[in-house]
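Worked example

This section walks through a single chain of length 580. The input is the sequence exactly as stored; nothing has been trimmed or padded.
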Amino acid sequence: MSFSLRRGITAFSPLVRRRLAPPASLRWMATQDPPAEKTEEEMAAIKAAREARKAEKERLKAEKKAKKAAQEAANEAAEKIHEVNYLSYDDQDSYESFGDLKRVMSRSRTGRDFVLVEELETRYKAGDKVWLRGRLDSIRVKGGSCFLVLRQDSFNTVQAVFFKDKEKPEFSQKMIKYLKSLTVESIVDIEGVLEDSDVKSCSVKNVELKISRIHAVTKAAAILPFLVEDASRSEEEVEASQETDRPFPRLGQELRLNNRWMDLRAPANNAILRVQSMVCQLFRESLYSQGFIEIHTPKLIAGESESGAGVFTTDYFGTTACLAQSPQLYKQMAISSDLTRVFEIGPVFRAENSHTRRHLCEFTGLDLEMAINDHYMETLEVIHAMFKHIFTGLETRMEKELAVIRQQYASEPCTFTDDPCVIHWPEAMSILKDEGFDVGDGMGDLTGAMELALGRVVKEKYGTDFFMLDKYPMDVRPFYTMPDPEDSKFSNSYDIFIRGQEICSGAQRCHDPDLVLDLLKQKGIEVGEGLESYIESFRHGVSPHAGAGIGLERVVFLYLGLDNVRKASMFPRDPNRCTP
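Given that input, the structure is written out below as tokens.
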């Protein structure tokens, strides 16, 4: 080493020399022999120890995960709302107080005594415990409080309430959770205690139900085509809301009819069908009291029953059959069978491509036929008495339903005279001329505008919404109509009107078989298979007779002042609709 390099090294301080010195471990290793290689047994032992430590670590991790999962499962089980298999009222205390009912499949008679909402204020008092079943009309949950409205039969409603119980926090929490899961329009069972209250928004105003038990029988979808509340508003109410910050939705006719079951839950629409039912009941009552019997005629027939009316045809084992346009031919043959006063309530089919607000392709006919002694006025008197019974019966027996309907669809009771108000054709033509209509030679049928104008004048002149118009021109009446004995251009026929619109058509029938054949020839109608037996029944002797056919839906539609006959039909059929 050169002198200068050695001098430079010796010139370093002790601290620097220590840093430049090699580590003690290296100095030791430099003085020791290298370690001996491990045997296979030692290597295996080391590997086994390493794997054991790893396995223990995985075990502890899995154990921790399992404990966490078990805790979560326990928490979920504690919070889960189970399905309730309610079999017996006697075992009720063993069932959860909330939860969906197991599907009702006639497993047992539970013994629960369900009561009617409409009877809560008359048959029960505060403190009574009752069971109710109905639709969930609305529900509002806020914090520890719940208010819901239960609806029965469309327009009977009661408020039910639940409040958090501080002494039962877990129960209350689960009850609130279940109540939040319920959807409007679901069918629910509620048990509770009646309490005095002042509820302005329900039909039951003096009591409410404190919920102790609630179960969904069937749950409605969370998203509905529309709300029943929106379907229950009058057109005036909807129109007035359009200028506000929260306008009500307009529900079109097609939307309503496509979901008719929802539309019929609206109180007024539901009540309309109840009125329709009562019209049938009153029709039967009146005619039974006047010596009629009810018959049921075929709806599959070999030929047309009404000339000039469209007909639906169908294959009948290789031949063509028609859906009956009326029971006309058969109720006349009933007279030939010595069933001297008959009526029928049944379906009528008309294949008319008419899109008006008052026409349907299928409707319910209220038909009657009776033997007469001398004059068709005998029949008009029977019909007048029958309609008087219907009009008075609706106002007295359906007071509640009519009030609900008129709240949404405004109308007044139908006015009528004690004795039949019969307008003759010449007088009708004179009225229409005075009203500015061109009636030509007076031999044509009435238009809708003419009918309305005639109804308005008759109301002003005679004070009635209900009247009869007779002596129609023969050319506008069916072949089975008896001609006027004084002038064969006219007929012994009549239509009946409510509020200026026709609801019924009738006549004295032609009971002479040779005259029937002559009338068929005049109208260019061939005597087919369907008419042969009809005419033959007259050849075997038949009493003079008269009758009428009434459209049920049209009666309801016009009596209630509705804007469309479809509102009076449960599931209407028109040229564009054959479903639902």
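What to look for: Residues 445 and 476 are 6 Å apart (CA to CA).
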